[in-house]
Amino acid sequence: MSVSSILIILIIGAIAGWLAGVIFKGSGFGLAWNIIIGIAGAFIGGFLFRLLGIFTYSMIGSILTAMVGALVLLFVISRIKR
Q1: Are 19 and 63 in contact (CB under 8 A)?
Q2: Which listed residue, 12, 37, 46, 49, has the most CB atoms within 10 A of its CB?
Q3: pLDDT per residue over 25-58, tens digit each?
Q4: Model-level pTM?
């Protein structure tokens, strides 16, 4: 994996995590947590989208997939905390 690929993954993770944080709680969680939530969300979203037969091929599609996965992750975490 090249350095540029890693940077793209981190940028997509940060954007998706921040968007999920804004939608779910009203603000982001800081850069490090946004990246972690976004990257985990990308795996979850990719899995869920593949189950539904949805495939994305663009940068915006990748961000949306990661954001949906991050929202699912945040929802599950909020239910576990209660």
Answers
A1: yes
A2: 37
A3: 766 677 888 888 889 998 999 899 999 999 888 8
A4: 0.84
